[in-house]
Write a structure and sequence with these properties.
3-stranded antiparallel beta sheet, 8 helices, alpha/beta, 6-stranded mixed beta sheet, single chain
Length: 259
């Protein structure tokens, strides 16, 4: 993984939920600009780990630091955006345009207290929409979007916060093959060109192997955490139909060359 000081550091973490220990002995460092793929069976502790990182759960033992401070504290406020699976599954009776949905991510108490910041907020919204390539459907009702477009809109809402870290919880669920490939290219571009740090939870092993820098398997603790370009190939998975110049290939070659 990347060199330098970690922006998210997990040391000997132990977390309990519902009276049972879910995570035990987890050690993990994530650095600025990393694209991390997180997988594991249901109930293995993936969501527990993420909720601890964002400050929703307290560890029983060990430590978690985010941007040098306590999870959910002042040091990380506004710097991490959680793009949940549920966020793309809006109620069918909710009428909201893409621009309105993205605007929710740009809204803060400071904007409410300082109306003159409205122009800055508008700029953040338009930039987020541009980054995910939804300019042509910005006024369209979210319910009329394809699964891939809706997922892009939800990511744009996270980008509108100007967060440095995007945590994506099963972003490929309900996304068809063609849209998935385009969506993965978008994530790669956000990491490579926009400098975002991405943590993607997914059961799609092919996607993890293809486009992330580091594959981590969680099953109570971290089972695997290294450059998976040199790891054994994922067996019995369907290869993604990604372009040959997909940027993660360049990263993997660079990592091999530096090994």
């Amino acid at each position: 993984m990347s060199k330098g000081e970690a922006i998210i550091s997990v040391k000997d973490l132990k977390v309990q939920r519902g009276g049972a220990v879910v995570l035990d002995g987890v050690d993990l460092d994530i650095h600025a600009g990393d694209f991390v793929g997180l997988s594991g069976p249901n109930g293995s502790g993936k969501s527990t780990l993420l909720m601890t990182i964002v400050g929703e759960l307290e560890p029983m033992a060990g430590s978690v630091t985010v941007f040098g401070g306590k999870p959910g504290g002042r040091a990380s406020r506004g710097r991490i955006a959680w793009v949940s699976q549920a966020a793309a599954q809006l109620p069918s009776n909710l009428k909201i345009s893409v621009r309105e949905l993205v605007s929710l991510g740009a809204m803060s108490w400071i904007d409410i207290l300082l109306p003159f910041r409205r122009a800055q907020r508008h700029e953040r919204v338009e930039n987020a929409i541009r980054l995910v390539g939804l300019e042509d459907v910005a006024e369209r009702d979210v319910q009329r979007l394809s699964g891939g477009q809706r997922q892009r809109a939800v990511v744009a809402r996270g980008l509108a916060t100007e967060a440095e870290v995007l945590i994506l919880d099963e972003p490929l669920a309900g996304v068809d093959r063609a849209s998935r490939d385009d969506f993965l290219k978008l994530l790669d571009r956000l990491c490579r060109e926009e400098g975002k740090t991405l943590v993607m939870v997914t059961h799609d092993q092919a996607a993890i192997h293809q486009c992330t820098q580091c594959a981590i398997c969680i099953d109570g603790n971290v089972r695997f955490d290294e450059n998976h370009a040199s790891a054994p190939a994922v067996m019995q998975v369907e290869a993604l139909s990604l372009a040959g110049d997909f940027a993660s290939s360049e990263r993997k070659e660079a990592l091999r060359g530096g090994a």
